Amino acid sequence: MEYLVFLRRNWLFLLAGFLLTFTSSYGQTYFISLFAGVIKGDFGLSDGQWGGIYTVGTTLSAITMVWAGVLTDRFRVRALAFGVMVALAGACLAMAAVPNWTALIFVIYALRLTGQGMMSQLGQVAMVRWFEASRGKALSLSSMGFAAGQAFLPVIFVALFASFHWRSLWVLAAGLVVLTIPVILLLLRQERTPQSMADQAQRAGMNGRHWTRGEMLRSGLFWMMIPMAIGPAAWGTALFFQQVHLTEVKGWELVEFVALMPVYTLSAVACTFLSGWAIDRFGVSRVLRIQMLPFALSFVVLAYADTLWMAGIALVIFGAGQGMQSTAPAAFWAEYYGTRHVGSIKAVAAALMVFGSAIGPGVTGLFIDLGVDFPQQMLPIAMYYLIAAGLATWAIHRYKPWLPR
């Protein structure tokens, strides 16, 4: 009931956040990886070469995000979203016309920067700024855009493969982005004032201060949280990036595995709302302590899965982690470091996330080329998640007393 009342009062801004996160789909790994098979076939690439190209392009976008993400501190969402969405549509058209593997590096860079990087940054920073007491609810509702994109776009586009050339589908993606632009501009024609432009609405972080990005980079808390910031992006990206390889190794049909995505999404949606409520009720610190555990368990289950039914269970567990990932990190940076410079601080977190999504495909692709298939890599990945959880728990225990009471 709380969610319904909140949604009714703020639906314009929440719908804008939803569309921003949904539109990021065209630069997300789960969408780009649908074309992995045809791209490797057209350009004669191995798993390792394709993963290397993806890693280089994504790493470049992560480096760019450190500076590009700061723009969310300087411009309103309405103005910045227009430019980013035009650029994203152009990147989709570039993918439709990419002539060779060299150009593919720059196309991946553009898709990852504008899609996964800036569109996600816009959607989450807007919610953090526009809402304070109900930040968790706002993040959970706007994050439904991520969930909807991952649930429906893979199923739709895989089905369209039967009737359309893969390059034509990227033209379709560009058209969908362009159609979303006027809707965003209409929803935000009277945009709420960002908290960075309204001093009275700001909330301080640790020690009652608004930390700058430089101060954050010199704090011990930030460095202890890096494994948690990188892990879900790195190995979650690898999971969807290697789905073609995974289904081949397991002996499953890709279309049947992709059909499990709505089940995964339902789990992610449920846990997104639950974690949003928990953040507002108990604080983000308690949610972060357990956030990595579902990721670890899901990789263990999927490593041993020999049926699609077991794969579905693994994806449900993975979705629980992804639901918490959709809300907790963005709330964490604002709560611990303050809201005044949250755009530039979140830009570093976004760069880490994008960098993580570059590492995952590259590392897993390299090991596949060396003869270690992806299911064999899953137990070490699960161990990584457990180590990241331990470091984050210790860091929160160490620095939580610094928060204002």
Word description of this protein:
The structure is a single chain. The chain has 405 residues and is mostly helical. Helices cover 79% and strands 0% of the residues. The chain has 20 helices and no strands. It has helices spanning 2-23, 29-32, 36-43, 47-68, 77-97, 101-130, 135-142, 144-160, 166-187, 213-217, 220-241, 243-250, 254-258, 261-282, 284-290, 292-304, 308-325, 328-337, 342-369, 374-399. α16 (292-304) runs antiparallel to α17 (308-325). The relative contact order is 0.16. The model is unreliable at 194-201 (pLDDT under 50).
Write a concise synopsis of the structure shown:
The protein has 405 residues and is an all-alpha fold. It has helices at residues 2-23, 29-32, 36-43, 47-68, 77-97, 101-130, 135-142, 144-160, 166-187, 213-217, 220-241, 243-250, 254-258, 261-282, 284-290, 292-304, 308-325, 328-337, 342-369, 374-399.
Distance N to C terminus: 28 Å
DSSP summary: helix tally: 20
- Biggest sheet: strands, sense, closure? none
Sum up the overall morphology in one term. globular
Assign a percent range to the helix content: over 70%
Strand content: under 5%
Q: Helices and strands, in N-to-C order?
A: HHHHHHHHHHHHHHHHHHHH
Q: What is the SS-derived class?
A: mainly alpha
Low-confidence stretches: 194-201
Count of DSSP strands: 0
Taking all Cα atoms into account, the compactness measure Rg is 20 Å
- Average the pLDDT over all residues and give the rounded result: 87
